[in-house]
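Here's my example:
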Amino acid sequence: MDERFGRDGATAERRPLSATLGRKLRGELAWDALEAPLAPESAPAIRARLDSMSVVHLGSGAHERWSVQQEVLAVTQEEVSAAEATLVGLRGRDVVCWSPTYWHAIPEDRRTDNRVICFFHHGGLRVFDDPQIVAGLCMNETVADELRQQQPSKPVRVVAVGGVEDAVPYARRSHPTRKIRLLMAGNASGRFHLFVGRQKVYLKRKGVELIEPIARRLDPEHYAWVFVGLDWEPYAQRLAAEGWTVISPGPLESPGHYEYFGEGDIHLMLSRVEGGPLTLLEAMGLGMWTISTPTGIAPAVVRDGLTGHLVPPFDGSNVEQLAERVAAHILSLDPMTLSAARPRIRDSVAQRTWANFKVEVEAFTRERFHAG
């Protein structure tokens, strides 16, 4: 038995979540920034910043650096928030809007006669109907297809989002268990919505319903769990109480969370809906084998049987069937196979860097805005 993380159910280095950090990682601070009005006396300085920009990058202005805004910071360090644009007005400008939420947050009478390229992740696609939005950027073909069907005349470009380099400088493996570790990462409480008739229904997005059914099919003497990110505590505690080895540091500021990516052997990305996710590239950048549902960028980056496994989509009705498939893939992998695959996995995503992402976004921006 592992002396530190054996069947006693111990959980590694769990830390309390401060209210401020929790709101930051959930994006609530960024949302506050969207809604909070600014003092009128700040208008001259904001106008001066806008006048210095050939292209306005519309962000939140108070975002967390671990999620959507990784993309903003890869391209520019100068962004204007929706609150700032609302105060001074956004008229007759070329704009790159990094989320439909930011555009929607500006009152219509405060944004007129602009040309906007909007970055879409997995939601807010109706904003593409806005006549000021002249083109769309996105991370995966599913979103691109939906945008093209919605507005056939507007150009849409899928750009190769970065992230493979993010965890590399920080990842470490310090916990002593020799078990194969199953990593799940991101925001466990992330949701998406769909309409049932006229009613909007919110569903869990990250596939957390699969954790316990998968665990039931595995031997806790041979496997361990690693949870990195926000709101994994209920699942970590339940597994630990059942005697599983669980490494779960709790929510951490970036880049502290990347340390714990190094504890993983197999990355489980079991989401219903994704834009990326960045965690997929962060894990593959470390050479980690991924078992993934075919959402987001996974079909484009996971080579089934060579760098990971693609499993059927998760729709909420196929919990047991999907858990059986995922567990079978886990059981087919041994430490030697995982180790041998690491260089191949790293090489397969080596071009998915933030520098290359910046080049693609800037090229598309020049193309569209110079097209007139």
About this structure: The CA atoms of residues 66 and 254 lie 6 Å apart. The first helix runs from residue 19 to 25. Confidence is low (pLDDT under 50) at residues 1-10, 12-19. The first strand starts at residue 11 and ends at 12.
